[in-house]
Amino acid sequence: MVLCDIGNTTFHFKIKHKEFKTNVDSNLDEIPYDIKKLYFISVNKKATQKLLKKYPQAIDMKDIINFKTNYVGMGIDRQVVSNFIQNGIIIDVGSAITVDIMQNGNHLGGFIMPGFKSFKKIYPKISMNLTFKFRNDISLDQIPLNTQDAINYAILSAIILPIKKVQDEYNLPLIFTGGDAEQIVKYFKKKDYKYDKNLIFKSMKNILQKYKENNKSNNKKGNK
Fold it and tell me: What domains appear along the chain, each with residue ranges and CATH number?
């Protein structure tokens, strides 16, 4: 069984015990053709079409997951990871940074921020004098005294402070995931968070297992 998480910029595959990413503009030549079972989630229609062209038998998990929320327009990737957590604040740090709050198995809501790559593009567009090198070792307890530190301070504050706000408000553990999560975990106390880079695939497997178990149970009932 192969799992695939299609994001805005990458295909993220899990084949047996190996994971790898490839750009959504790639032709997928490095992926073997003889895949019998492929399950995927996607927030990218064009990339989905590319995957299905090569693997028409691939199954979209949006038809399997049954995630309840009052949030309108919640992406399937956020639904999948939230489905795995009973109590926690899930921070997925990728091309966008999403924050979702789960309490007693209920989704209370969440919010979206730009990812680091988007933040990095903003300042040079304002002025080439604001071209900078990103650093994640800036102290947020001291006001900067140079432009490089000032920009990094602003970016990190814009990301970290809203997360700390909901952490204080809901008093729930933080669960970080996503490729850039390691950039910001150092700004939180170790006892308050867990970092799980494989959260999306763990949750996809969990959903598929429950789906298969429910099908077996329903088939047994139908045969009685």
Answer: 2-63 (3.30.420.40), 76-201 (3.30.420.40)
At 99, which helix (H) or strand (E)? Answer: strand 96-103
Q: What gap in Å lies between CA 191 and CA 48, rounded to an integer?
A: 39
163-181 pLDDT, tens per residue? 999 999 999 999 999 989 9
pTM (2 decimals)? 0.89
The residue assigned the tokens 């149970």 is 217
Give the tens place of pLDDT for each residue, 26-83. Answer: 888 888 777 889 999 999 999 999 999 999 999 999 988 989 999 999 999 999 999 9
The number of C-alpha atoms within 13 Å of 45 and in the hemisphere containing its C-beta is 0
DSSP conformation letters of 189-209: -GGGEEE-TTHHHHHHHHHHH
Q: Which residues are catalytically annotated?
A: 77
* Residue whose C-alpha is closest to residue 62's, from 208, 215, 217, 199: 208
Cβ-in-10-Å burial (0-12, 13-18, 19+) of 60 comes to: middle
